[in-house]
Amino acid sequence: MSTSNEVIRAIDRDLLRREALVATPFPHVVIDDFLSPDFAHDVLSSWPTYAEATRVGKQFRSINERNKVQVTDREMFPPALKVLNDALASSEFLSTVSSIFAIPNLLADSELVGGGLHQTGPRGRLDVHIDFNYIEDRKLHRRLNILVYFNEGWSSGWGGQLELWNRDVSERVHSFDPIFNRCVVFETSEISYHGVAAVTCPPDAVRRSFAGYYYTLEPPANWDGESHSTVFKARPDESVKQRLMALKSASGLAKQTVKKLLHAPNAHRAG
């Protein structure tokens, strides 16, 4: 079995720690030429087609996330992707990212909830959001996201950039092209708003990424005890979507209120 040292190139922990410390709008690092070149091309050459991934994965067609397929079952990965997944979850690499972000006792998710192989086709999108913060059944607090891109020859004009936004989603602070063998790691929190620019690649192209998430059993210092699922926000130029999301949020609150009333004491007694 390959180790992380055999597929992931040497990383300067001290340099990346300094970069993460001063990064805005929240701690993050960008590592180009992340994997050994031969291995990165092995992953790319073994990557399933969109149709193949669709047969074994999950498709997204919502207002906030569409024309995207995700495969989280490691047993469905081709061999090179299994090696990549195992390297990102290895104790050696966990030690590295733990050192860079000063988060002890990091754990990889063996179930790849929300992670794994992602690919987005033309006209695909992923709106700005913060991620779910807790896995209830395993008592895991989400702390870091890692994304590795496999898009050889990707043009900036094709969109698909990873965007990092400020805390009120009024300003896009960074926009990173999803170029081949680029890795981005960032801290997840209540202000780590990020998204993917609309994908406008040609019909015969797709945007490929592999995602992994790291957790701790200990809560982050600023955790308020509330768990939540993914929280989406509209970009400043998405006025129609802002209204739609406001309606959806109001509808959700109304449903929660009705549910609470129905389960309140004496709720089912006649007046």
From TrEMBL:
InterPro entries the UniProt entry points to: Pro_4_hyd_alph_FE2OG_OXY, uS12_prolyl_hydroxylase
Superkingdom, natural source: Bacteria
Residue ranges occupied by any Prolyl 4-hydroxylase alpha subunit Fe(2+) 2OG dioxygenase domain in the UniProt entry: 117-215
Pfam families named in the record: 2OG-FeII_Oxy_3
Gene3D superfamilies from the UniProt entry: q2cbj1_9rhob like domain (2.60.120.620)
Name of the molecule in the record: Prolyl 4-hydroxylase alpha subunit Fe(2+) 2OG dioxygenase domain-containing protein
UniProt organism field: Rhodococcus olei
